[in-house]
Amino acid sequence: MATDVICGMKVKESTDLKSEFQGKTFYFCNSHCKSVFDKNPQKYSR
Ligand SMILES: [Zn+2]
Fold first, then answer.
1. From the CB of residue 42, how many other CB atoms can be counted at a distance below 10 Å?
2. Ligand 1 centroid vs 45 CA: distance in angstroms?
3. Where is 18: in which H helix or E strand?
4. What is the distance between the alpha carbons of residues 46 and 39, in angstroms, rounded to a whole number?
């Protein structure tokens, strides 16, 4: 399982809701969390 860095939910790595940033892959519970991340990935990728 991975953690959605936006809301803290556990998500499966098999989801299509993911973004790559600086060589890491981030997974999201829904498209809203993904869009929040994509607007400001530096803020959430630490
Ligand atoms: Zn989420």
1. 8
2. 14
3. strand 18-21
4. 15
Amino acid sitting at position 7: C
Q: Which tokens go with 42?
A: 């530096």
Q: 6: CA distance to ligand 1 center in Å?
A: 5
Q: pLDDT band at 46, cuts 50/70/90? A: confident
Question: Model confidence over 20-39: pLDDT tens digits?
Answer: 999 999 999 999 999 999 99
Phi, psi of 24 (to 5 degrees): -110, 150
Using DSSP's 3-state secondary structure scheme, residue 10 falls into: strand
Q: What percent of the chain stands above pLDDT 90?
A: 96
